[in-house]
Amino acid sequence: MDDLNVKNPPTLKQFVPTPPRPPRQSKSGIFGTIRQRCFNSIGNSVLTLCVIAVLFYLVKHVLDWAVFNAVFIADNRRQCMDISPDGACWAGVISWFNGLIYGRFPVDEQWRVNVGVLLGLVWLLPLMSKRIPLRNVILLSWIGLYPFVGAYLFLGGRFGAELGWVHGVMTCLALAFLTIIYANWILSVWDKKGLNELFVPLVSRFVERRIHLLSFVAAWLLIALVMAFALNQVSLEPVAIERWGGLFLTFIIASFAITMAIPIGVVLALGRRSKLPVIHWLSMTVIELVRSVPLITVLFMAVTLLPIFLPADVEFNKLAQVLVAVCIFAGAYMAENIRGGLQAIPKGQYEAAATLGLGYLHTMALIILPQALRMMIPNIMTSFISLLKDTTLVSIIGLFDIMLMARNIANDKDWVGMHTEPLVMISVLFFLFCYSMSQYSLTLEKRLKVDR
Amino acid sequence: MMTSSGHLATKNTTNTAIKIDKLNKWYGDHHVLKDVSLDISEGEIMVVCGPSGSGKSTLIRSLNHLEDYQEGVVSVFGQPLSRDRQSHKIIHQTMGMVFQNFNLFPHLTVLQNCTLGLTWLRKMSERDADKMAMRLLDRVGIAQLATRYPGQLSGGQQQRVAISRSLAMEPKIMLFDEPTSALDPEMVKEVLDVMIDLAKTGMTMVCVTHEMQFAKQVADRVVFMADGEIIEVGPPEQVLVNPQWDRTKEFLQHVL
């Protein structure tokens, strides 16, 4: 190391690497593999046969019940029994299917639920495309603006009347924002300028700085105005919150909890690590209190205790109370997940950020949290999945979510005592959702891996 | 504001960049820095060496307040630093630092690592920031890697990114905390070359390093520390070739 420019002495022998050997070829095909693994000895052969027999027995019974002996068309449970006494009676689930999905939402207005959910998904679709700039803004707009559109569609009423004009304005802004996102996306496919860029020449006449931001605002407001005139013409049938239910309600509670869990969790996690004693102890109390109590207790407390603390003239509906409770519950669990991620960030990252001159908020928002959240994707997704399943508990305090709707089927006079089939149906639905969530988390993990 | 030492810097500078006055630091009962006083002139290349545990890293990290110290004053360009907002501002405007473990931000590309401070703190437009960062990356010879992530680079390349990340903030003083200690031997040279280039531009540099060859080649003065005290200060030919103290001789025998 004492000379920086070490020259190779010419007398050294030239190094010649050994050429690599080809890998060993496997000659056996799929049958060979099975024979090698499952029938390589007498004991293993017997075991394999036993397992096959048990599996066959199980699968046959399940299929017999669920498919071959099942009844798909019947008017009531008695008919089901008459046709096939030991098969599933899917006819009941089919006739109640609408109720399982929409709860007691009026049948004529159910298209609004479809449109609302679809709009929500459509809003998130651009996040998949790499062409779109500022995808974080789209996500934020979804969190901040979409609820207004959703609430307008689901609750209905004359525009701006039942829900108040603030809500109306926000709905217009939200729809205008969505329009701009999609218009710009489509325009960008043809390499055209975005809608907001149309206003640049006009805006640059009046101001000199922040031209792009202001022209975006101008385009946004103009489209919102158009939206307001259009929406003024339509009047939707009002639907009371009490009539919301089924999978739709489950989705609302779960997606609300999932979106709020991260911000609440971040605030609580940072608060718990704060050096200011008041903030530290406050966050710690919230986290520990909520975590040491079952969700069902939190829900009951929200419904019975919350009204006591509020002034008498403020009246929340049950759904709002439940949403608050679930959000705090989810946030407290999320806070511990995020804290785990924060602890895994090496001290050097803080030091590097500090030497660049980044303050606390910049350091957290740009350096620490992006890494901590990415590192914790598997844990966060696990929390989300259990949250989705936990929302079925709201049926206990009398919200008609998918669980309560399913149990209601057994009370219908036509389908008295039918418990198994609706629950099987729900299990399949939940499996589909949870499994796709966990698969999505895997792809997300690969895409956002911190240390590439 | 003249340098107080008799062994003057070879460069003709009159301004003191950093003045360290009787710095004292304890970890519990352990006295890590004992009355350390040192003046560093503007444009001077100061190499700090010494056995491990001698407090050289603590000293350099005290300069930009990554470490607390209990007694003493550090002044930067005549401004005594304290713990207030104003001092932090001075530190961030004048000093950049390069770490032993690079400490690049792994979730950002090489280019984003360099432009982060420019766009968020300087409020520079993205295009200008990119241009400036690319110029710096070009200077350290890794412009072609701008879109890669730190995890895809070798140690030497990462350290060069770290240097350009610091340089992007246009510091007047660069602090190097053992910049080559975590590198494989064959990568040490590429980082040292960048540092030598930087030294030629007249940057004030404080380097904690074991690279004695580098010290001999570019240092204006070498500080030898042991047990939290400065034992010898002087031009490299004096401290490294002709040491006056037994501790220095012993250390140099181990290193060279």
From TrEMBL, chain B:
Domain of life of the source: Bacteria
Statement: the UniProt record of this protein carries the keyword ATP-binding: yes
Cellular location(s): Cell inner membrane
Single GO cellular component term: plasma membrane
Record keywords, A-Z: Amino-acid transport, ATP-binding, Nucleotide-binding, Transport
UniProt cross-references to SUPFAM superfamilies, sorted A to Z: P-loop containing nucleoside triphosphate hydrolases (SSF52540)
Domain ABC transporter: 18-252
Protein's membrane topology: Peripheral membrane protein
Major localization class: membrane
Gene Ontology molecular functions: ABC-type amino acid transporter activity; ATP binding; ATP hydrolysis activity
PANTHER family assigned: AMINO ACID IMPORT ATP-BINDING PROTEIN, PHOSPHONATES IMPORT ATP-BINDING PROTEIN PHNC
Family, as annotated: Belongs to the ABC transporter superfamily.
Name this protein carries in UniProt: Amino acid ABC transporter ATP-binding protein
Organism of derivation: Marinomonas arctica
Native organism taxonomy: Bacteria, Pseudomonadati, Pseudomonadota, Gammaproteobacteria, Oceanospirillales
